[in-house]
Protein 1
Amino acid sequence: MDSERKYIIEHVTHPGHPLSYVEGSRVFQCDGCNKTGNGSKYQCATCDFDLHEHCATCPSSFSFVVHPPHHLNLISHAHLSLQDHICDVCGTEIDGILFYRCERCNFDVHPLCTQLPETTRHPLHPDHLLRLQPLSVGVCRVCQTSGCGHAWGYGCHVCDFNIHLQCLNSPIPRGSTFLDTLMSPMAVLIVMILALLIFLILMSTKNQHNWKGYSVHSVYVHR
Ligand SMILES: [Zn+2]
Ligand SMILES: [Zn+2]
Ligand SMILES: [Zn+2]
Ligand SMILES: [Zn+2]
Ligand SMILES: [Zn+2]
Ligand SMILES: [Zn+2]
């Protein structure tokens, strides 16, 4: 194996077997949060058990900016009933055995969703920083639908500009405004083809005139 192994840890999700650090691995399924990963991981090679580096090393309790009133506790229980546990940040189901929870508020979040930056930038809105915030109001500028009232996303308070978390890396919609339509690659291509056609038509009619003029002139000279 060309991956370099660095550290050995014990983890509560996989008692009895130490996990080894594997750097820059290929795509894997995290047995903690049940999401895919493709970076560094911790692995039990005997059982083909993998954890994201973050899932293996995240603290058992911490304060999360999205849920300021209480500390969140890391829950890692293979036999916990996970029915109706929805991540309060990304709005998708929590189907792994590792997640953060505030018992008092019934607030749950995927470990990886606690790693979202508080601010980000997006090419659709280059002038202002976008902040992590609830998307219960407003329409996502990428998918053009409103938030489900549950999940968080990134938004600009100044401009009422919102983007879902899952739409952050989606392709930017084209043709949403008149200017976008004008500037779309297809429109530019069509304009270039039309210009070329007009140029060719002009050139051919000009050549025809020259040829006629020349032939009439030569006939005249020969006589
Ligand atoms: Zn994970
Ligand atoms: Zn094992
Ligand atoms: Zn989540
Ligand atoms: Zn709480
Ligand atoms: Zn969206
Ligand atoms: Zn703005």
Protein 2
Amino acid sequence: MSVQLPNDPARDDVLAGRPALWLNPALKVNGIADPSLPIRASQVKEAEQNWKLLAPLLQICFPELTESKGLIQSKLIEATSLRKAVGYEAAEYGRVFVKADGDLPVAGSIKARGGVYEVFMYAKQMAEKRGILTPGGDITVLASTQARALFAQHTIAVGSTGNLGLSVGIAARALGFRAVVHMSSDAKQWKVERLTRLGVEVVQHKADYTTAVECARIDAEGDPTIYFVDDERSEMLFFGYSAAASELAGQLEAAGVTVDEEHPLFIYLPCGIGGAPGGAAYGLKAIFGDAAHAFFVEPVQSPCALVHMMSGSKELISVYDVGLTNRTEADGMAVARMSAFVADVMKPMLSGIFTVADDDLFRWLWMAETTQSIRLEPSATAGFAGPEFIVKSTQGRAYQEAQGLTGKLAQATHVIWTTGGAFVPEDQFKKFMDRGASLVNVD
Ligand SMILES: Cc1ncc(COP(=O)(O)O)c(C=O)c1O
């Protein structure tokens, strides 16, 4: 299929694989309250409650959660020396923070928020159905021998570019489920090995992510003992991620940040299929409304959310349909076709999407480590392009004007969501750093 994208200031750059900022023409005032949306903001609160309920169980399953009493949370770090290295020292950039999901416990990426949530909620439902857990009863019974024996008869399956597989596989094995992860060809070998060591069955496909998901779906359809974590449609994953918003809101408040019409908050979220950035963005819009400006970021050759949302098509458009390759070192974002569910939900509330070149990912990776010891994988660094796009580019200025933000940027806050990295093995990380260093020295 070949698709013509509509006339748009970003179109030529997108099609040529050059970094670009697309502004969403469907963005609405108070878009979170759009009555056509299939979900409600109250579901974010429910997810927060569920996370609290699961905490005592998570603490038993994952000793690294002892200090946080079972909560899976990351730090908000103010970019001090890092903002200087990246070029955001000037006052016009306001305050710049990194939301350090690369250090999230349990799975080492933002995927811990979605994958762990869905697997544990599924286990809870199953235990309730079988009478092991009574409604309102002690959740830690899910770690009992009886519950584990039940879970051992069931399989959790998922398709992944790597990190979702890690999070779902780790969560499933911690409760005693069997787990099968269908990996796309982009998945890094160390992620495959880590899962295999945990007893997860990994099926390595020579095809892209959409195909890996399809294979997992087909396997599960034919077998009632397999539960399929559906990254293309899952509301459970989405709301698991969405609970990150209240965590961030509390951290911003503690850092003395005001968010309102006069003090805009910009959030930059790396996007693959859209679930993780969509959930976090939705949660933030539920808290801050129009004072929060959420942007997705994608690799120049894999801008699946950008091309689909720009197309305005009801049918999903893939990056191949517009002649792009879906080739990138950013494995977590190597996705050719976004989630239709996320596209619908984001339509009235996403401010825009920008794209980044692979070399820049390595440059930022090197800067984050050398300045503030923030360890990232390439996908996780993409948001660093955000402040420059907003403050300096023609499209960014057009956005400021359209939103009444001109003159307010010095009092703005930028949050760069860094989404993975803690689990990257040392030898692999060294290679990333060498590539980053060579690029920085060229400048
Ligand atoms: C490090 C990292 N960042 C961002 C994403 C994007 O998440 P999603 O595919 O839900 O859009 C992924 C996905 O695997 C990832 O691994």
